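As described in the Methods, two query proteins were run sequentially through the folding procedure within a single session, without resetting any intermediate state between them. The first query and its resulting structure tokens are shown here.
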Amino acid sequence: DASVAAAYEQWAQTYDTDHNRTRDLDAAVTRQLLGEVHVQQLVEAGCGTGKNSAFLASITDRLLSFDLTPAMLAVAREKVRAPHVT
């Protein structure tokens, strides 16, 4: 839906600072469950603004992250500038 895509485009600039318990819980659980794991390659579908990307980059040799919203992806690219992350 074009209206949903447009909303995420606008939301990208404030997504990380807006209060969002679900997003914050997701990040905490991801770190708790995967904290001791190391993998060679990892795909992050729907990375959004990269809220989990830096953590995921720390547990893998190669991370491929993608998102459908260019503005969200631009924020993620600014956050994670590691050579093994695409």
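Immediately afterward, the second query was submitted; its sequence and tokens are:
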Amino acid sequence: MSAIFWQYSYLQVLDFLTTLAFLLVGVREGNPVVRLVIELAPSPIFGLLTIKVLALGLGIFSLMSGRFRLLQRMNLVFALVVAWNLVALIVGAAKLRPFL
């Protein structure tokens, strides 16, 4: 498989883990579509997994159809999303236990 797709898959895992972490500290999901799926799912983890399976399907479709530039752009977007998730996690954790 393409290195671009492996990067995409890795970023999906990081997005899943960081989203799960900030939900655990009480930060609300910012994406309205993801928030709706999480709220409608039997559990937040199942909702997140559903979103990630759909995202991986989109990545596979992009790979199979030769849309490598689209995958590169999605990698950039998800790298920014993961960075944002980390900031949300830090801010959320700091509200629970201020250390500064």
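The two ends are 45 Å apart (CA to CA). We note this only descriptively and draw no conclusion about the first query from it.
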